[in-house]
Amino acid sequence: MKLTVLVDNNTYIDRYFIGEPGVSYFIEDEGTQILFDVGYSNAFMKNAQKMNVNMKNMDFVVISHGHIDHTGGFFHLINFYNEAIMENISYKKPTLVAHPFTFLTKTFDDEEIGSMLPEKNLSRYFHMQLSKEPIWLTKNLVFLGEIERKNDFENKEPIGKIAIDEKMVDDYVLDDSALVYQSKEGLVIITGCSHAGICNIIEYAKKVCNDERIVDVIGGFHLLDASKKQLEGTVNYMKRINAKKVHACHCTDLNAKIALAKETNIKEVGVGLTLEYK
Q1: For the chain, what are the domain ranges?
Q2: Are strands 95-98 and 214-220 parallel, antiparallel or unpaired?
Q3: Does the pLDDT of residue 13 top 90, yes or no?
Q4: I want to staple 102 with a disulfide (CB 3.0 to 4.6 A). Which of 87, 92, 98, 132 is the partner?
Q5: CATH architecture, domain 2-269
């Protein structure tokens, strides 16, 4: 499996890509091409073009959760497909994989923070596969669906509101999910923001894949101004699982990275980073 970072908050020096506070990864496994999240703008498409990644060949588009920094790029991807149709250029219609709550209305202080395109609009351009249950995309790569939340230090505060059954209720981001790759050496966890809790995600990944070994964890850890309890709980957990590498990025602040670096083999992440696993 090969993962390329198309969008992250950071870029590498002397790599002339666009960064933004969002996430998008291009994943290749066994001939299957997967776009994981689409960032906030068209930055993922501009970067992909420089990297010679062809958006017309995607088998799956997987969305980690419904916030705009992970779904905003849909406008640009759909426009790209529309232009291909207008010019009689063939493209593969991808399957869109996400949790059923991903495209519901989400607000924070009465401002929209969710996907600006609802499920109905997206279904014109994608085969829709919305599921709370795990979905295997390839023999070794799985979308986790709804994450079990069992520890006492993660995901304890709602992030705004979500419209469920025509009522606005506290949003604990139940749609937050992740991908897991089963390598020969163990599991590679791929996250967007980890609103479900990075430790909850890893535990559920181990359960779904029946494997306790953790090779790498890449993505946002939702550790921005984290409470002392959450940060200490996360660091202690990461120390116990003894991951070979940790690529914490996006919504992981400097204080959290410093704390994690004391107990884990933390690595830098930026647009253009490529990681490969067997």
Answers
A1: 2-269
A2: unpaired
A3: no
A4: 98
A5: 4-Layer Sandwich (3.60)
